[in-house]
Amino acid sequence: MTDIDIEPGDLHGGVCSRVDCPLNDGGACAAGHEDPMDCDDYELTELDETEAEQVGPKPWSLPDGEALAAGDLEAATAEYPVSTVAPLGIVGAGKTTLICLMFDQVRTRREPGWKFTRSRTTLGFARRNHDASFNSGRTIPTTGRTAFAASGLCLHLGMRRSADDSPAPIVFIDLSGEHVQQFVSGSTVVQVNNALRRAQHVPVVIDGAQIANPRTRQKAIMQGISLLARLKLQTLRDGANVSIIMTKADLLEGIDLGPIFDRITSEYPIPPERRFVTADRGESVQRGHGVHNLLTHLTTLAGRPQPVWPTPVTPAPSPLLARFWAAR
Amino acid sequence: MTDSFRLCLLGLPKTGKTTYLAALWSCLRSGLAEDRYRITELPGDTAYLDAISYAWAAGDPMPRSSPEVSDHIEFTIEAPARPPLQVVLPDLPGEVFLNAVRRPVIDEGPGAAVLSSDLLLLFVNCQTAKMFEPLGDHPVDAVETAEPPAPANEGNIDGPDSTTPKPDDAGDGPGGELDPPAPRFREFDIGALDSDTLNCELLGRLEDLFGDETFPPLLIVLSAWDMYVGEPDLIPDDWLRDHQPMLWQHIEELRRTMTVGVVGVSAQGADYKDHPDIVEVDVKARSWGSDSDGRKTDVAGPLLWYHDLPSRDG
C-alpha cells in the first residue's frame, strides 16, 4: 500500500467479510485482488451513528427517497396540481405491481407519451419492485405484499405529457391488500378511509390470474362486486373517478372480458372508457400493455385540459384487447 | 486577473473520476505548444496528483481516493486569449456519493465542496452503467438461461462475479444424489441498484442540498467513451438517452432552468485488457474527449465546455 491508499477502517473505506483476511489488519487481500473493491468479500463500511459522531462534524441529512406519508409528500409536490390515485384490490390483485409498472414504463422511456421528471420516492419504488427485476436473481417476477405498517404510504411519479409538455404528476397511495379486505368486510380501516378521502382516482384492481382460471373466476368476480358495493357506501372526494383495471392481461388471451366487466360493475356502473386491461409481463402481450391509456385517465383532473395527442403513441392493440372491445 | 473556478467531480465508485483527473493533470503538465490549456502555477504539494498520474501513465489501477490527501487540489491553468483560471477540485471518493443515496447523508466537507462549486461534473461509466431491467420483459425460459447482471457500482466491469446468484442455482438442473442448492436471491440493497436509478437519485438529493441556492452548471461526463470510437455519429447525449433514460429525462427537466451538458471522455484511451499497448502511447495523445456535438476534443474538453458557456462570456 502507498501512503495515499485508504487504510482499512478509514471513514470511506471498507472491510472484508472474511474474518481471516489480512486486509482487515492492514495486509493484502486474501483473494489476491490488488484493489479490494474488486473482491467479492469486500464491503464498504457502514458507519454507525456513534462512530460518525466521533469522526467529526455531524453529516448533513438528505431525503431518503422512500415512500412518504401524505403530509410529507404534499410539501415536496406542491409545485403542480397532483393527481392522487388510490388503487383498491384484494391481496395479490396486483396493486403495487401496477403502481411500479407505471413508474417503470415512464422512467425507462417505454411510454413515449410521457416524460419522467423526478420522483421524490425513487427508492420506495425500487424497494417494491426489486423482486420483479433482473437484478434480484429471480426467474419469476414477484412483488411482496404491502405491509400493514407501510399501508397508506405514498409514492410520487413526476412526469409531463409529451403532447403538450404539461406537468402531470401522480401520487399513488399504496394500500395493504389485507386492509382493503377488512374495508370490504365492513371494518373501519383508517388507512383506506383516509386514502379514499384524498384520492381523485380510485381504480379497482381485479386479479387477472384469478379471472383466467375458470375455477377462481367467479370468486374474483364476487370480490370485485363486493368491493364496488362497499365503495358505493363510502364517501369519496368530490369528483372522484372510480375505474376498473384487470391486471395480468398476458394470462387472459382468449377470454371474452366484456361480460366479466359487466358482471363486476352491474351494481356500480363503470363506463367502458374507465375499464382497463394491463400487463406487467411480456408473454402473449407486451409488458406495459394498457399503461398509456391508464395514465391518460389517471392524470385527468377536473379543470386540467386534456391534450390532443399528435401521433399514436401506443402499440397496435393486441388481439386480446381487440376482441375485448369488439365484444362491447 | 485570475478567475477562481471551483469544480466538483461527482460520481459513484469506479466511474473514472480519479482516472480523469490523472489524465487531465498529465495532459496539462506535458506543456506542448498546441495546448489550449497549460499549467501556469503548480500547487505546493503535488504528491497525490503525481501518484495518480504515474499510475495512469503506466496503466496501473488508480489508488483509491482518500479524504486525507485528495480533498483539496488547486492549480492554475492558462488558455490562449483567456484569463487564467484557478481550478479548485477535491477528488472525493465515490463512496461519499453512494452513501449520499444509501445512508442518506453527506459529510460536511464534501457537502460544502459541492455547494461551493462553479461546475459539477457527474461521471457515468459507459462500460458499467446499467438501467432498470424488469423480469417481465423476458419470457421465463429466456430468463432461466440468462445470468443476472452485476450491479453497476460493484466495480466489476467484466461481467457477473462468482457470487452473483444465478437463476439455475434454484436447483432445477439435472437431478443428482445431493439435494438441489437453495435459491440464492439477491436481497434489496440500495448500493446494488442500477446506475441509472442511483445517479438520478443522487442528483435529486444534491438539488435538495442546494435548496433555494442556484444550482451550478452541470456536465454529465461519460467515461470510457472509447467504447464507442467506432460510432462517430453517436453523440454523448443520445447515448445517455438510450442507456440511462431516467437520468437523461431528469436532466431534460433540469435543462428548462439551468445549463446541463453531456460530453464523453476516454481518460485511459482504451480498455487496458483489449489494448494493452495503449500505455505505450504518448500521454498527450492517449486520452481524448467528445464534446456534446460529438466532435473530438482533448481531455480538457469539460473545462472547455464550461469556459465557453455563453453566460461566462457575458
Short description:
Mean pLDDT of chain A is 84; it is low at 1-12, 47-53 and 307-318.
Labels describing this entry:
heterodimer; A: about 325 residues; alpha/beta; Rossmann fold; 2 domains; four-stranded mixed sheet; three-stranded parallel sheet; 11 helices; globular; disordered N terminus; B: about 325 residues; nine-stranded mixed sheet; 12 helices; 10 strands; about 30% helix; about 15% strand
Q: Can you offer a commentary on this structure?
A:
- In chain A, 31% of the residues lie in helices and 14% in strands.
- Chain A has helices spanning 49-55, 70-76, 95-107, 122-129, 177-184, 190-198, 208-212, 214-233, 257-264, 291-298, 319-326; strands at 14-16, 42-44, 60-61, 83-85, 114-118, 153-161, 170-174, 201-206, 241-246, 275-277.
- In chain A, strands 4-7-6-5 form a four-stranded mixed β-sheet.
- Chain B is built from twelve helices and ten strands.
- A nine-stranded mixed β-sheet of chain B has the order 2-3-4-1-6-7-8-9-10, sandwiched between helices.
- In chain B, helix 4 (94-102) crosses helix 7, helix 7 packs parallel to helix 9 (245-254) and helix 8 packs across helix 9 (245-254).
- Classes of the chains: A alpha/beta (328), B alpha/beta (314).
- At the A-B interface, strand 3, helix 3, strand 5 and helix 4 of A face helix 2, helix 3, helix 4, strand 5 and helix 6 of B.
Could you give the topology of this structure?
The complex is a heterodimer of chains A (328) and B (314).
Chain A: E1 14-16, E2 42-44, H1 49-55, E3 60-61, H2 70-76, E4 83-85, H3 95-107, E5 114-118, H4 122-129, E6 153-161, E7 170-174, H5 177-184, H6 190-198, E8 201-206, H7 208-212, H8 214-233, E9 241-246, H9 257-264, E10 275-277, H10 291-298, H11 319-326
Chain B: E1 3-11, H1 17-29, E2 38-41, H2 47-58, H3 67-70, E3 73-78, E4 85-89, H4 94-102, E5 105-106, H5 108-115, E6 119-125, H6 140-144, H7 195-210, E7 218-223, H8 236-243, H9 245-254, E8 260-266, H10 283-286, E9 288-290, E10 296-297, H11 301-307, H12 310-313
Parallel strand pairs in B: 1-4, 1-6, 6-7, 7-8
Antiparallel strand pairs in B: 2-3, 3-4, 8-9, 9-10
Helix pairs in contact in B: 1-2, 4-7, 7-9, 8-9
